[in-house]
Input
Amino acid sequence: MILTRGPLLAALLAVTLAASAAPLKTDTAKSAITANFKQMNVPVAATFRTFSAKLDYDPARPAAASAAIEIDTASLDLGDPDMNKEVAKKDWFNSAQFPKATFVSSEIKAAGAGKLNVTGKLTIKGKSATVTFPATVRAEGGKQLFEGALPIRRLAYNIGDGEWKDTSMVADEVVIRFRVLAGQ
Output
């Protein structure tokens, strides 16, 4: 059987398009990113109200996946308007100069059924570091649910300058938790 050039090119194009999955659309109403820490040894969970996530994930090819997260640092909600204004100031996030915190993956590896190891660059307040953390992924309502936790040290990113460098009031350890629901 001889194929003419037109059908052959169409078949190759169809295979190429099927192999490169479209980026997933994030359902921000059902997604959340929180900062979890201790203040005066009392656990605090604060929610970032504004963020975007660009995820490209095919469960059949996790090594080809990518993730880019952008968080509006002034959107951190501690449950009190005065505290929310305080953490946007220069000593904390300095949101006027550094309005976004970002994470961009450089490698995503399968680590078993529904488990991933994610590596990438985390940038907060102008400071960048390569981080690696575990994540889980599972189907939920026709979409993919990504969940995980990334422990960081806030002082490594100059979050809490001046008098706030003293960790007796606000602990240095912060865990960034995420729950991102995304689909086609």
